[in-house]
Amino acid sequence: MTETKPSQPPKRRIARMSDVARLAGVTTMTVSRALRTPEVVSEETRRKIDEAIQRTGFVPNYAARSLVSKRTDVIVALFPTMMNSVFSGTIEELSRRFQAKGYHLLLGETRFDIEVEESLLSSFVGWRPAAIIVTGSEHTVRSRQLLENSEATIVELWNLPKKPFDLAVGFSNRDAAYDMTKSLHDWGYRRIAFMNLHYPRNDRSVDRRAGYRDAMADLGLPIEPGMEIDVPFGMKSGQVAIERILDGTLKIDALLCSSDTLAVGTLMSALRAGLSVPGDLAIAGFGDVELASIVSPALTTVRVPRTEIGFETAKMTMDRLDGRYDGPPVVDCGYSIIRRESA
Amino acid sequence: MTETKPSQPPKRRIARMSDVARLAGVTTMTVSRALRTPEVVSEETRRKIDEAIQRTGFVPNYAARSLVSKRTDVIVALFPTMMNSVFSGTIEELSRRFQAKGYHLLLGETRFDIEVEESLLSSFVGWRPAAIIVTGSEHTVRSRQLLENSEATIVELWNLPKKPFDLAVGFSNRDAAYDMTKSLHDWGYRRIAFMNLHYPRNDRSVDRRAGYRDAMADLGLPIEPGMEIDVPFGMKSGQVAIERILDGTLKIDALLCSSDTLAVGTLMSALRAGLSVPGDLAIAGFGDVELASIVSPALTTVRVPRTEIGFETAKMTMDRLDGRYDGPPVVDCGYSIIRRESA
DNA sequence: CTGAAAGCGCTTACAG
DNA sequence: CTGAAAGCGCTTACAG
């Protein structure tokens, strides 16, 4: 091969531990110790090794390290989407906590699809992660096998499974939707509709719908045809309800949305159509993202413990990996009803 | 150790390739081939191997694979934050494209801090990633060394560096801010202020500010004291400008925000204070996130090519890794001025 | 406090 | 189409 870029220095190979060892006049074992248990290495030796590391720019090869030590600092985390302040709040918290302790987050996006989750799992498992964090408790058969065989700590997020796979951190989506429906009733609303994501195998959607239905039944309020509105994820979906209200096919005085994204979309769509909120239509969201308190009228919503879930998950996972987790397998981070202006 | 969970089957070790080989009556070499170049293995043998893989739940150990093959499918990507529709749009596109081709995204969050970036790089580089994607062109000295030594394809995102490290994909932040300032002038505004993130070492902030200043100078408009407002990231920061307008310390007719997050925060704060937008104050954003077209009045903003950047980056990176990228080192994805209702 | 030996689980580079 | 040998770059488990 000929030199095509004379301005570049000769491309040196990535330094290995043996290069550092040779430069420092020791064996790789001593370099390895200087890196992992420096207190056990003499100061003089350590100094020489540090210098050799500086000169070579050595960074240990994690593949080799994990292969022989049979452990990795890789933690796999799978979320439906990152385009959502609710999940990204949890992701940010997780990533911050894990980064601080030297763990590496391998993030995957399932797009609300448990088949995609399976495909990601089957590949990520090859890294022999120390822990695997998944959203929800609904998984394919093969996903369950992969989790089972992986020897990793498994954490299921965002709800409270009756039979957790291993560990779980979340809150009761069913109760939260139930309480918000009941609150809307307390505030005087009677014709309460429910807008939900159309993901039939998403346990969060299913639970929230159940909460809405149970509350309506307990309150003696009928769920009339059209009062359950299934839409795809996105702010644009919010306009669906407003269109139906305007053309007279939907007669309601309140709308509970299964996410703030939908609620804000609906709210803006209502204002644009000249409807007054909550006068003509009360709107409640689910999530309490930053935007919820910023919009005008400010959004009444369910505060979801997104940061707490991230925090608890990171803590629980790291404790478990250190062999000192002694809490319950399922941690409930709670939720709360936040009444603002929109309902 | 005693059996504490009699209901669980005996914990089997994670299957290795040799387990599969033994079950199928071949050597590991043949299993390896069946996995990587199945067309070269006889149908009968392949069938036996597939069955053994099923039975054992075997997933190849990537650490071993990458150690010996001296290549990985790991791609490191570092972003300032994920709590931002602009970056998460790029991240989602990247992650989707890479996932589809079997690459694994190791994501890191720098929190707009190049020291954090350095710390992440120094650790992630241990995975010997095939490519490293970073946001911006401002890096610490040690970060540059790490990138230099890594042998990875490097892609810098979100601007157009004069001297790219290797490859770059972005647009001109300076020109975009310049054009928006000029547009505001064309639309009749004269006292134009600029709200920016207070990250002095963030080249995107610096470039956008330069664009604003250059345009004001070219237009012969003075930048009076207080017309450049530096704030931390977040919607809440939007209210700063409104407070100053209300208490009379800031006299302006238009505000250009360096992100839609700030612009929406300002817009909502203005509406809440009873100001009319754009009558009392015109507001322009930067980003064109989904929310920008949803809020009322809809936000005038700079459309930033977040999806295009993700798409081009993924394509360029994978082409380069396949040894067939022959495009320019710096790809300009452009931007456009979107006039809506707020200015 | 330091080192020699062995091996983690794969793939490369042969050979047949 | 399949296999025997060697080795990737580290750490474990000794020994001294």
Give a short summary of the structure.
2 copies of one chain form a homodimer. The first copy, chain A, has 13 helices and 12 strands. Chain A is of the alpha/beta class.
Q: Can you tell me the CATH superfamily of the largest domain in chain A? A: Response regulator
Radius of gyration of chain A over alpha carbons? 26 Å
In N-to-C order, the SSE pattern of chain A is: HHHHEHEHEHEEHEHEHEHEHEHEE
What would the principal axes of the Cα set say about the shape of chain A? elongated
**How confident overall, as mean pLDDT of chain A?**
92
Summarize the biggest pleated sheet of chain A: 6 strands, parallel
Tell me, what is the CATH class of the largest domain in chain A? Alpha Beta
Using DSSP, what is the number of strands of chain A? 12
What's the tally of helices of chain A?
13
Widest sheet of chain A: strand order?
A: 2-1-3-4-5-11
Helix content of chain A: 40-55%
Task: Report, as a whole number of angstroms, the end-to-end distance of chain A.
Answer: 72 Å
